[in-house]
Specification:
With 132 residues, the chain is mainly alpha-helical. The protein contains seven helices and two strands. A two-stranded antiparallel sheet has the order 1-2. Helix 1 packs antiparallel against helix 5, helix 2 crosses helix 3 and helix 4 runs antiparallel to helix 5.
């Protein structure tokens, strides 16, 4: 599941919306919306996020937060270490090879460490359909 998918599903559940009803309101198939919620689709487009916000009546800070989560929600991330240090390349490759083995507590610790680096907002990875 992606950050956007998790948030979308939580909002839908909190409002008591059935998946098929929300999909109809967004003019997408229930299968598409389910895949978006479960992270089986790529990063949602700005247009899709805007449609979600309109459908749900989400404005201002909450809409910006949803877009930020969408920007961080590509399920296949490419990390370009060209021009960086050997350690950066080693770290990217180790993470790619082991990310599936990391538990939630370890992921939380690593995220907190990255966020403490000046300018660390989680948006530094290049997104695409490849591997690190």
């Amino acid at each position: 599941m992606t950050p956007f998918g998790e948030k979308l599903r939580a909002i839908r559940a909190a409002r008591g919306l059935a998946l098929k009803d929300m999909a109809a309101g967004l003019q997408v198939s229930p299968a598409y919306l389910s895949a978006m919620e479960h992270g089986r689709r790529g990063k949602p487009s700005r247009r899709f996020v805007h449609r979600v916000c309109q459908f749900l009546g989400i404005i201002w800070d909450e809409a910006e937060d949803l877009q930020r989560l969408a920007d961080l929600s590509h399920p296949r991330v490419v990390v370009d270490t060209a021009g960086l240090s050997v350690k950066a390349t080693l770290f990217a490759n180790e993470l790619a090879g082991r990310i599936g083995d990391l538990d939630e507590a370890t992921l939380e610790t690593l995220l907190r460490q990255i966020e403490t680096v000046e300018g660390g907002d989680g948006a530094g990875a290049q997104e695409g359909a490849g591997e690190a």
